Amino acid sequence: MKFNLNNIVRESVRKLQPYSSARDEYVSDGSEMIFLDANENPFDNGVNRYPDPYQRSLKSLLAEQKGVSESQILLGNGSDEVLDLIYRAFCEPNLDNIITLPPTYGMYNVLAGINSVENKEVLLTTDFQPNVNEILKVTDSNSKLLFICSPNNPTGNSFKKERIEKLLESFNGLVVIDEAYIDFSKDESWLSQLKTYPNLIVTQTLSKAYGLAGIRLGICYASEEIIAVLNKIKPPYNVNQLTQQRALQRVLNQDLVDQEVQQILDERDGLIKALDNLDFVKELYPTDANFVLAKVDDANKRYQQLLEKQVVVRNRSTQPLCENTLRFTVGTPLENKKLIAILKEMK
Ligand SMILES: *Cc1c(COP(=O)(O)O)cnc(C)c1O
User: In a mutational test of the pocket of ligand 1, which residue from 105, 109, 111 has the highest number of ligand atoms less than 8 Å from its CB?
Assistant: First the structure.
């Protein structure tokens, strides 16, 4: 069956007449105008005006860097907003379903619950790869979204290219590839495949490698048609002025981002070596991200011991296939040194 976006968009969204804001109706060309159209306070304090609802400056920079067009980008208040918009555009509550591949990012399931959409879970294989046959087996005509997190949180590994390709070719809904950790990965982003697959959505974020978790900026790349649907339903001013400014500054300073990423990767190697030498660490899983998942003898005990030493890690033991695992985010060189010293002292 050939992919047809019109069959995927919710009827109410297709029929929707979007809200038209003051900043939609008149787009400034940069000349000195007197703005009396949006009931703002006229006294300049840097943020007295509504922000650009389409974040044109930031999008134009991202488009240039990533080799896509501006009309293929939607920005949101974190990836979490972007993901929620995707549900609301494409999933009919109490009718449609989505597919997720646990152990994975918890928000996909929470958003399914919020939007009253069934989540069909298909466990990863024991080496944390998508089980393609099982996924296609549970897929039905109401399966609208398939979430692929690669590199995957909390396991850390990237999924095999051939498996993702097979899913992109066989799944009739949208395939959302969450690339929150792509800047740490040796693998190439799926962005370059947007032209090949009309059902592909790639999400990225400034929260991890870019060091801007506090400003909330999530990015969605997809076909112009998919982005047009999402633009119809997004809140008009969903990315605030301060966020747009800080994001722009940071993306312009790509050298510093690259330098920090390299330092995190070097530190990760040191952390892996140290963890590998500990008796209570039973297994270390391959990672392509800025964290390491480790199987230990007793995760609750080790978690508590670390907490007593003022170190907070994530206990992932409740996740399927992750019994007795702890997830360690890579910190600064000093933090990692302290962590390793504490781990070595643990009995
Ligand atoms: C951290 C993370 C995100 C980021 O979400 P934001 O809302 O952009 O901060 C997205 N996906 C995964 C898998 C993550 O681990």
Answer: 105
